[in-house]
Amino acid sequence: AQSVTQLGSHVSVSEGALVLLRCNYSSSVPPYLFWYVQYPNQGLQLLLKYTSAATLVKGINGFEAEFKKSETSFHLTKPSAHMSDAAEYFCAVSTPGGSQGNLIFGKGTKLSVKP
Amino acid sequence: EADIYQTPRYLVIGTGKKITLECSQTMGHDKMYWYQQDPGMELHLIHYSYGVNSTEKGDLSSESTVSRIRTEHFPLTLESARPSHTSQYLCASSESGTRSTDTQYFGPGTRLTVL
């Protein structure tokens, strides 16, 4: 069975500091991995996704994530945090076959950015 | 910006009432989803549809029902609301019913409170 674990329900960084949000997955087959962002009172928006091409994936708003099979990880990073990055971030996994396109989500990490 | 809409955005009702949460998308997407989201928890898939006249139950058991009579419309109904149904409900759609790499586009959500 697939699962996603996001380490840290809350992360706080200073404006201009590195953002690192952790995601580990469990899957019996090579997974597809997604990061979504949710701003207050809004739905989720795709930041980036890994679909078995390049292991380093660049997304919107300066975010990127690296797929590391040996560590079963897909951590999200941004070199310099901006106040507008304050939101909740969700990691998700899907696998080929089975319930095609259905996602398994992590519990989310709320990012706070201090001025 | 994804063209997927949910109404109402907020709903407060009494126990025992019948309610329908509306979801519409104008992207012509085949697959649509309903998720339940509670604070600090994963998004849980409660229903999905591959297309017209197709509905499937998701990973989380739900007393709600759904219908898909038109491609663009995927309403969720609770016949008799209870306080345990209090939650945020998110609707989403994706282009294909069969590709695990597809992006899901989310509506803004309906926050339901049952007194």
Question: What would you note in describing this structure?
Answer:
The complex is a heterodimer of chains A (115) and B (115). The model of chain A has no long low-confidence stretch (mean pLDDT 92). Chain A is 0% helix and 54% strand. In chain A, a hairpin with a 5-residue loop joins strand 4 and strand 5. Chain A contains no helices and eleven strands. The mean pLDDT of chain B is 92. Chain B is 0% helix and 43% strand. By secondary structure, chain B is an all-beta fold. Chain B contains no helices and eleven strands. Chain B has strands at 4-7, 10-13, 19-25, 31-37, 44-49, 56-57, 65-66, 76-78, 87-94, 105-106, 110-114. In chain B, strands 2, 4, 5, 6, 9, 10 and 11 form a seven-stranded mixed beta sheet that branches.
Summary tags:
heterodimer; A: 115 residues; 6-stranded mixed β-sheet; 5-stranded antiparallel β-sheet; 0% helix; B: 115 residues; mainly beta; 7-stranded mixed β-sheet; globular
Topology:
The complex is a heterodimer of chains A (115) and B (115).
Chain A: E1 3-7, E2 10-14, E3 19-26, E4 32-38, E5 44-50, E6 56-58, E7 64-68, E8 73-78, E9 87-94, E10 104-105, E11 109-114
Parallel strand pairs in A: 2-11
Antiparallel strand pairs in A: 1-3, 3-8, 4-5, 4-9, 6-7, 7-8, 9-10, 9-11
Chain B: E1 4-7, E2 10-13, E3 19-25, E4 31-37, E5 44-49, E6 56-57, E7 65-66, E8 76-78, E9 87-94, E10 105-106, E11 110-114
Parallel strand pairs in B: 2-11
Antiparallel strand pairs in B: 1-3, 3-8, 4-5, 4-9, 5-6, 7-8, 9-10, 9-11
